[in-house]
Amino acid sequence: MWRRSWRRFVGAALVAVMAASLAACATSINRIMADPWHYRNREARISGRVVDSYGFGPRGAYLIDDRTGQLWVVSEMGAPRRGAWVKVTGYVREGYNLGMLGERIRLPMGLGSGLLLVETRRRASF
After folding, report:
1. Residue with the larger pLDDT of the pair 34 and 98
2. pTM for this prediction
3. Domains (ranges, CATH) in the chain?
4. Fewest Cβ atoms closer than 10 Å to its Cβ: which of 8, 68, 69, 112?
């Protein structure tokens, strides 16, 4: 009887670990671009190389390329340098309002409107 309960415990633990590892996987940018409504009001995790980067005081914006597509990320914590490899978690937004920032600074194409990710967490490596 003890062996059966031990096997059930180990089986349940394995299932929990597998579910957690699948939840930690990054989503491809192509998948987000294909169906942005699916990611609305949900956290999405992407990873890729920074191909363009702009800083505006404490804020920043950067373009990530994951080889399936490119997506702009808006950050309240500055922007990583070009060439950095980043893992970003945030919320997908369409038509994000950049406020007065868009009027004062000439922004790159695609940043002022359209689809982007509002960063909540980031890990970078060089």
Report:
1. 34
2. 0.71
3. 26-125 (2.40.50.140)
4. 8
